[in-house]
Amino acid sequence: MIELVGLTKRYRTRTAVDGLTVTVRPGRVTGFLGPNGSGKTTTMRCVLGLTRPTAGAATVLGVPYAQLPAPMRAVGALVDPRARHPGRTAHAHLLALAQSNGLPRSRVDEVVELVGLAAVADERVRGFSLGMGQRLGIAVALLGDPEVLLFDEPVNGLDPDGIRWVRELVRDLAAEGRTVLVSSHLMSEMQDTADHLVVLGRGRLLADVPMAELLGADAVVRVRTPQTAALAAALQRAGGRVARDPDGTLQVRGLDAEQVGDVAFATGVRLHELTRATTSLEAAYYALTGEDVEYRTGER
Ligand SMILES: Nc1ncnc2c1ncn2[C@@H]1O[C@H](COP(=O)(O)OP(=O)(O)OP(=O)(O)O)[C@@H](O)[C@H]1O
């Protein structure tokens, strides 16, 4: 569990994180979203004791990071994958970390295998591609077999196979009961990975919601019938909000597809189409963050 209470970080001229209160719970993947500069990395750095909050607190498993008796066994993080010695091999990098953190040597081979770097473990990190570097960063995060994991943009630089691998990994880690916080700019990827979302805008909390709730909030059922007026009236009586497209299709909000079908049946109306139009996370995200983008590209 990660708890943020009134977490605030001010730099000289700007407030990167502004009174953030959130609990990131175990057993599910929590997606961490927000436009560039909204404070995600700063928040993660505060959780990891790398940045000192100006006010408020961040705790991991009930204590500030600095008070964890064996930090690597409690928290694993991929925050800055470039932070490593380029002249070392992947294996040597991991071994040095394992030794300085009292972790068994055997764990190095385990994580190397787990992240798919076995074939290149004895090569120098200097020559690693972005994707290999990400895998090594993930290996570091997993080294202490921690209960809490923070991944900042873990799929950055990965090919589609790598992206799928990260998705399955984070889902497995959460299914094992761990706390998993993942930031990403790839909305479709996040939609497939996260169970819950924490969304920031300009350092403030915009949403702390289950994915299903966010996507369901604006769900639309499309329905087409030759008896448009009769169906629209019946759907409104049943509590639906009904809009009519120029081609006669009805867009219904506030009722699910089953309810729309039942109303049509009860009204004796024939249907030619009944579709549940799912909202994409991307659409829901833009609706949420529209006002809070710090850097906006020019109008086109
Ligand atoms: N060391 C620093 N000194 C001054 N300002 C900083 C520092 N670190 C971050 N900031 C500022 O704080 C704000 C939040 O940055 P942060 O990197 O946490 O955002 P982010 O949500 O992770 O962004 P991105 O999606 O681009 O990675 C930004 O305006 C950034 O310029």
From TrEMBL:
Database matches in SUPFAM superfamilies: P-loop containing nucleoside triphosphate hydrolases
GO molecular function terms noted in the UniProt entry: ATP binding; ATP hydrolysis activity
Domain ABC transporter, first and last residues per copy: 2-227
Keywords from the UniProt entry: ATP-binding, Nucleotide-binding, Transport
Entry annotated with the keyword ATP-binding: yes
Name of a matching Pfam family: ABC_tran
Family: Belongs to the ABC transporter superfamily.
PANTHER family: ABC TRANSPORTER, ATP-BINDING PROTEIN
Protein's name in the database: ABC transporter ATP-binding protein
Native organism: Modestobacter versicolor
